[in-house]
Amino acid sequence: GIASDPTVGDLRRLDGRTVGSARIEVVIVASISSSCDVVYLDSAAPRDVGGVSRGQILIGAARSFAEQGGTVGLINFGGQIRFVINSGAARRANVNISSQLMQLAAKVIS
Questions:
Q1: What pTM, to 2 d.p., does this model score?
Q2: Is the CA virtual torsion 102, 22, 8, 46 positive or negative?
Q3: What is the mean pLDDT of residues 8-35?
Q4: Exposed, middle or buried, 88 (CB in 10 Å: 0-12/13-18/19+)?
Q5: Torsion angle, CA of 26/98/69/6, rounded to 10 degrees?
Q6: Angle, vertex CA 5, rays to CA 22 and CA 53, nearest 5
Q7: What is the pLDDT of residue 46?
């Protein structure tokens, strides 16, 4: 569950920091909220990714998360966390992912 997911602790450490002029606020919710710009679903979360709002990035740690329609899937690759980008899901959500970030991805799918 979410309490045992190590990524949640990492995300909580970002709470209150700023990126550019935006302040990061980490909130644990039971369902996807349209008020969030970035939503992280832990590996135990349901895989219903159909409720994504325009401009919203959906990140998940479940196996094949990006292939199931998420924007970014986190994968364990040789003891390191890597990521898979679903460019089609990003495009449908009206999210622009930079070419530099795509080059860092372990895999980019359409």
A1: 0.80
A2: negative
A3: 83
A4: middle
A5: -40
A6: 45
A7: 41
Token pair of 66, please? 């990006």
Report d(CA 97, CA 6) in Å as an integer. 25
Instruction: Look at the block and give the residue holding tokens 């997911």.
Output: 5
Q: Tokens 């530099």 sit at which residue?
A: 100
CA distances from 85 to 3, 13, 74, 107 (A): 26, 24, 9, 6
Asked whether residue 89 carries a pLDDT value surpassing 50, the answer given is yes
Closest to 27 measured CA to CA, from 46, 12, 43, 48: 12
Q: Provide the edge-to-edge strand list for the sheet that holds 38-41.
A: 38-41, 57-60, 72-77, 80-86, 107-109
